[in-house]
Amino acid sequence: MFAIGDHIIYSTHGLCKINDIYDMTVSDVTKKYYQLQPLENTLVTISTPVDNDKVVMLKLLQREEALAIIEVFKHPETESEVPQNPKAQPKKIQSGDRMQIAGVINGLLRKKFDTQIQKESLYEHDYNLLNNTQIILLKNSHMHWTRVLKKSIK
User: Fold this and answer.
1) Which pLDDT score, from 0 to 100, does residue 80 have?
2) pTM for this predicted structure
């Protein structure tokens, strides 16, 4: 469970701050909720159950985890890591497990490179998955660094 004041990545709104954790009753069921404040849009407040499994809520990367993710891209995926079923790739991405996501991206980038060498095209499913995942990663990264730059200018 996260704590008040933590910064997290919330799957649909990106970087958010947890402003409160409170109990709320809906349909006679009381649950703990996070009150989230997206850093990109301070006019929005989000309430989501602490145990919400329909969205991904992640802690910010620590240096060690970032270095481990970079290592993933230095090596080809082993045969056991390559999903035989294309439907397994989006599930790995939706899991929020950064190592699995890095593995999927690594595999897709290597497949893209191989198809380019053979003067072929990447399957549409793979192409869309790779592009969408990169957009998500770059959007969160761009938003983060934009905020860092704005704060350093002030």
Assistant:
1) 46
2) 0.59
